[in-house]
Every structure is written in C-alpha cells, then in structure tokens.
Amino acid sequence: MGTSTYLAPVAAVCALLFLNGCSSTKPDTSLETSTEQTTSIPEALPLMQSGKPSPYRSVKNRQTYAKRTWIAQARPQTYARVVTAPRIQRAMYIPSISSDYSLDQDFDTWSRVFRHFQLADYSGNPRVQQFIRSYAQNPQSLSILSDRASLFLHMIIEEVTRRGMPAEVALLPFVESGFDADVFSSAGAAGLWQFIPSTGRNYGLKQTGNYDARMDPFAATGAALNYLQKLNRQFNGDWLLAFAAYNCGETCVSRAVIQAQQAGLQPTFWNLSLPQETMNYVPRLLAFKELIGRSNSYGIRLRATPNAARLAQMRINKPVDLRLAAMQAGLPASRLIELNPCFRTGITTPEHSNRIILPREYADRLAQVIRVMPAAYTRQL
Predict the structure, then answer these.
(1) CB 204: neighbour CB atoms within 10 A?
(2) Which residues are catalytic?
(3) 291-347 pLDDT, tens per residue?
(4) How many Å apart are CA 381 and CA 376, to the nearest integer?
(5) Are strands 311-315 and 355-359 parallel, antiparallel or unpaired?
(6) Closest Cα partner for 112 from 308, 301, 281?
(7) Cβ(127)–Cβ(283) under 8 Å?
(8) Using an 8 Å Cβ cutoff, are 317 and 273 in contact?
(9) How far is 290 from 171, CA to CA, in rounded Å?
(10) 113-162 pLDDT, tens per residue?
(11) Distances in Å between the alpha carbon of 340 and those of 171, 197, 218, 307, 366?
C-alpha cells in the first residue's frame, strides 16, 4: 500500500473532527438589558375560553398547539386597505422603558391610559350611546376582556405616549381583535391589530408558513402605530378619520371626504358616508373609552395592573420548542406559546426572528434551560 493510500483516511478523520468542533458553538441566550432593547408588558393573564366567540368582532377561535396552521381567507375583503409608501418604514417594535411614567408607581397602567386621553368626549353622541348601552349589559364580559387587554396594555401605552399619540389609540385592539394576538378574521387579517397580509408586508411584517410577524404583539404594535401616524398626517391631524381609514382604507375615506365637501358638509367623521362596518368602528372605540374610563359606573372590574415592566425579551439563535422550554422552566406549558403566537408551530425560527417574549421573573431560569436544550426540528408549512 503506497503513501497516498494512508493519507486519504487520515485526511477524512481530521476533517470530521474539525466539523464537530465547529458545531459545538453555544447558542446566544442573552437577556436584553439595555433600555433600547428591553421590552416589557404586564404578565400573562388567563384568556377567554376558546369555545366562546368574541361578542366584539367576528374572529376565528384560538388555534390549539397541534393545529397552529394558517386559516385560509374565507371571503374577499370588500374595502382593502390601500397603502401608499409610508414615511416610517421601521416596524420592529423595541420600546424604551426609560420614560418618567414607567418609574411612577403611584398609579397603575389603566390610570396611565386614562390620564393621556386626548380626544373630545363623544359619549353623548347617539351612535356612541348605542354601543355603550349594548356593551354595558354584560359587564362581566367586559371585565374578562379588560383582563386580556392588561396583558399588552403597558407595552402599548408605553410606545403610544413616547410618540405623543392620544391614549385612545391603545384601546383600538378592543375593536380590532378583542386583545387576542392569536386570531384571524374571515378576511385573513391577523393579530392584535388585524393587519391584512398586504398591509402587514408594507409595514415590514414578514409572513411565511411557520412565522407571521402580524401575530408578534411587539412588532405588530410598532407597525400599527406607524400606520396610524401616517394616516393622521394624511387627514390633517383628525384622529377619527385616521381610525376610520385604518378600518376601510385611506382611499375609501378620502373619497367620502370629497363627497361630503361637494355636498356642503364639514368633512368630519360624523358627516361621511362610509361602509357600515366603518360607520360602527369608530363609535365602538369611543364606547370602549367611556366604559373602561368610567368602569366603576358600569360595574366593570379592572384587574390591578402595576405600571411596571413585567416581561422581557431574550435573543436565541437556534430553533426552540417553546412548550418544552416552558415546562422545563416550571411555567405552564402554554405560557410561551401565548406570548409568542407568531411562531405558528410553537418552534422558534431564528431566520425570521431571533427573540422571544417571556415573563421577566422567569428570565434567568429560561436562559439556563434554553442554553442546554438541543435545537428543535422545525416542520415546514
């Protein structure tokens, strides 16, 4: 046997050892600690039972872990949101927790929302009164809904006030999704802010078979606020028109404004001829403002929600089974799934997003668990 005969197997063994050494790199499970990267929302609370449909919007029931798949669009959307090139393209929401409001423990998050209402009081408007009377008939359901809202409220109001937007914006998911991040509408809109696919993509929300950024509460909040700010500028600072355009599209509202002007009417929301859904959309939001803002008067219980950071984000660079990670860290099996519905199979996809949302008190424990977990196999959808 010649020298070249011996060199071939030796070279193969050396190459194998080299590859094994490269694959031993530890995944990054660092906890975000800087004010620019740390995000916070109140701790997760129990959600409404999936068997009970929301009385506020026709949405699909929450998908179980085994069936977290895309729900096909059931019917075409009559009034698609026509989006011009937005001025603000950055959609990834990374809020700051350095504002003075975050440090004030003398009031809770709900009180913080009420303090920053900016719109006029429309509670006496007959169209608003209609929904106030309807919703007030079931204060227990509103209490349950407000519990669900408190999961995301601190995160949303933190960014709303940082941008100088009216706090009424933080209540918009009441109308859009019932504050459920894991829902699809019959028109294919998804998440807290009910982005349709095209508008979501226009505002930087990636959508694939196993990942949907529209269902990332942080990313979708940033995108929604960008879109609302753009609409507010387009309609000369009129927030009611901006809300209406968020529902039926800016082209629809612009056409209605022109029609009102041609008829000699002031182009306010109340004088516009819009689709029936949009005609009800803004009054519903204003009804929720009245009901939640004066909850004691309507017998609605608002859970105490401290005005403090309760959740954190952690960066990871490998696929992680969120259910398994939660159980190994001593959390309910569904907790990380509920906080991260954007990962449609329950397994993270670092190629699309390298961060997860987690309860702050479990951050260190989860970092240790995830660090030693093997990479999970992902199922392509």
Answers:
(1) 17
(2) 176
(3) 999 999 999 999 888 887 677 778 989 999 999 999 999 999 999 999 999 999 999
(4) 15
(5) antiparallel
(6) 308
(7) yes
(8) no
(9) 11
(10) 999 999 999 999 999 999 999 999 999 999 999 999 988 888 899 999 99
(11) 21, 19, 10, 22, 14
Its pTM stands at 0.75
Whether the CB-CB separation of 83 and 377 falls below 8 Å is answered with no
Token code pair at residue 173: 């998911």
d(CA 68, CA 344): 5
Longest dimension (CA), the chain: 101
pLDDT tens profile 367-379 = 999 999 999 875 5
Nearest residue to 347 via CA among 48, 102, 132, 66: 66
The answer to whether the beta carbons of residues 283 and 323 sit under 8 Å apart is: no
pLDDT for residue 54 is more than 50 = no
262 — phi, psi (to 5°)? -65, -25
| Residue pointed to by tokens 């990267």 | 37
Q: Which two tokens stand for residue 51?
A: 């068997």
Terminal CA-CA length for the chain: 52
Structure tokens at 184: 């699809």
Tokens 């997760």, residue? Answer: 44
Look at residue 32 and tell me whether its pLDDT is greater than 90. Answer: no
Rounded Cα distance between 272 and 378, Å, is 49
H runs (alpha helix) in 108-205: 109-115, 126-136, 139-162, 172-176, 197-202
Q: How many helices (H) and strands (E) does the chain have?
A: 14, 2
103 in helix, strand or coil?
A: helix
Instruction: Give the separation between CA 94 and CA 315, rounded to whole angstroms.
Output: 13
Residue at 62: amino acid letter: R
Q: How far apart are CA 51 and CA 165, in angstroms?
A: 35
